[in-house]
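Researcher: Sequence of Thioredoxin follows. Predict its structure.
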Amino acid sequence: METLINAAPDPADLIKDSDQNSFMADVIEASRETPVIVDFWAPWCGPCKQLGPALEKVVKDAGGAVRMVKVNIDENPAIAQQMRVQSIPAVFAFFQGRPVDGFQGALPESQIREFVKRLTGGAAGDSPLDEALDAADQMMEAGDAQGAGGIYSQVVQHDPENIRGNAGLIRALVAIGQVEQAQQVIEQLPDAVKKAPEVHAAISSLELASESVDAGEEAELLAAIDADPDNHQARYDLAMARFAGGDREGAVEALIESIRRDREWEEQKARKQLVKFFEAFGHTDPVTIQGRRKLSAVLFS
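Model: Prediction complete. Tokens:
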């Protein structure tokens, strides 16, 4: 398979620690060629421990369009005083030998990325991983789960804890019927990654796929329902059979009809499964939104 993600530049060339003796060369002089981000931090600062790794990730993703210098204020109080640092974390951006932008406090990665884009005039753009993920998402939407899975796999190899990459890989493996491989991916993930909404939704999708294997034939299940409209197990199995066949709207309709007829059947089994459907589809998916509306209409009628 063609490699879509190039190797990242050596972090040692992009990120370094600086002190009072080297600050002029590391920041002022270096910024005459490339924008330099200065992160003022201290070992005792909790928010610094959150911001620092996020800053480093975005700088590495920028592929050399920006550099980063870290200054420990406990060891270099004179620099902090000169820059009038009053609280940390504090970040300053230098270009052409002077400060041009900055912020205080820990920011989410999305805002850090926008900060870097402003600093570089947009030259940093999206990271190669993000571009690869966008391409994989488009392939999934087009029905090419095999090709998308290959790209997601490359992303995960570069960044094993990447949320979008792992969620996409699990969904792609499920789509091509490689359920055991998807389970292996999940087992290797840290708990924090498993709990991320995108990954949790992908795991729900895998669980549903496993449950739907023995659902039965749709025609036979419809015949059983025609013979006994209150055959809730047949409706439940029909929902799973439709899910396995890619008919998400039909799967939701079958469960909602079961809930309408008897919401307490087997300790609200149909409602609980419907919630799992919504988790697997995602909260912003049109099928989820419409399904929740229909469910509310049934529950509160």
